[in-house]
Amino acid sequence: MLVASIFLYIALTLAIGFWASKRVKTTSDFTLAGKSLPMVLVGVTIFATWFGPELIMGVPGRFVEQGIMGIITDQFGSFICLILVGFFFARQLYRMDIVTLGDFFKIRFGKSIELITSLIYVYTYFFWIAAQFVALAYLFHSLIGISVQNGIFLGAFIVVIYTYIGGMWAVTFTDLLQSVFIVAGLSIVLINILDQTGGIVPIFKNRPEDFYQFFPDRGLYNWTDYIAMWMAFGIGAIPAQEIYQRVFSAKSAKEGQYGVFLSALLIFVVGALPLVIGLGAARLHPELMGDDHGQNLIPGMVAQYNSLPVQMLFFGALISAILSTSSGAMLSPATIIGENLLKPYMPNMTDKRLLLLTRISVILIALISCVFAMRDTNIHGLVVSSAVLIMICLLAPLTLGLYWKKSSVFGAWMAILAGFVIWLLSDAFDTRVHPTIYGTLASFTGMILGSVFRPDSSDVKKIDLKEKIMQ
């Protein structure tokens, strides 16, 4: 019955994808839903894309073991990131009437920077998509008994179908359905847990003193580790294409900005549900923490100790979280490939052919992500890896390129190269201060020094950029 209900849900998701495909007539329909989404749909689709399996299968276990410190990166970092995007990036970039952040880099720094930043984006998405495929594979393995390897390909096949045919329209409508399942499923499981524990107070009672510690112990390295946790998503995900693709899909700059704020609220509030569930599950069934740091804590608890209706709701919610994140993650690099890696070098290409090539890119991205997934099955590690490279290479050119008129092309190159090289060396020498701190500081330093010592010879790009933002 459980397996049948899950496949029925997947069939419903695919049906929505086929229905949404009727709205896709142009590349803009496929990539930006015709720039017609209201605030609610923008917020919901960002939330659904970011509320991935790591928040249900990875973070709760770390919360049980480490307390507040275990959720700084995901729970607090994601919230801060979306708030910053809403205040300082969403409206400004929307007004430029662009499709991808690669378009921004082209307008601001030229085609060469567009090319390298687009390649970086595509590469980093392989890690994030792989994490979703791994989560689906574990789920299929526990429910229907297929191997993890076959589960990876099965999950990829399902997501590719409705992303390929419906694009952003399919992603948006399925995200709406999946968000309802996520909230409903987690709420039912939480109510069930609280009923067994006698309320929420016993769950938080008798926790270790350092469980509620929000700030690190004294010491330079404790603080640098703490800062690195905040940076991972807090600022590291600011240049993430999947956020802006949904912002650019809004019907106006205001709708896009408020949609980002709504997604921040949803991430923080709904993200707290699996944390409480995880604590309750660990209290009731401590043996489920196992040797994998609680990665299977909540799914294991639901599968072994809950009724069939609760299982159906929970696993529907879990599948929803994975599918929504996977589809959104695959559409973003596919859009970048079409808009920034193919279109500029094929000037006579028709929109119909661009649409076809973008759809084919979805398939290629899925296949490569499957390879990444089979090489690494640590869900949270894959997700964090996806944010590192865009932070150390692209955060400085995006931020300073948008707000500092003296930013130059050479400065952008120095930011990318300095950030990557310093991060790579720091990681190779296993520095005590986290490599992402060194890499990010090096990137901003390279951007500033490169722009000061080798400014652009013409102000044409800056005038064009200002006019686009003020439109």
UniProtKB/TrEMBL annotation:
Name this protein carries in UniProt: Sodium:solute symporter family protein
Regions crossing the membrane: 6-24, 36-56, 76-94, 115-140, 152-173, 180-203, 223-240, 260-282, 313-342, 354-374, 380-403, 410-429, 435-453
Entry superkingdom: Bacteria
> Which CDD domains does the entry mention?
SLC5sbd_CHT (cd11474)
What family name appears in the similarity comment?
A: Belongs to the sodium:solute symporter (SSF) (TC 2.A.21) family.
Principal subcellular localisation of the protein: membrane
The record ties this protein, via PANTHER family, to: SODIUM-SOLUTE SYMPORTER-RELATED, SODIUM/PROLINE SYMPORTER-RELATED
Compartments reported by the entry: Membrane
Q: What is the membrane topology here?
A: Multi-pass membrane protein
| Keyword set, alphabetical order | Cell membrane, Membrane, Transmembrane, Transmembrane helix, Transport
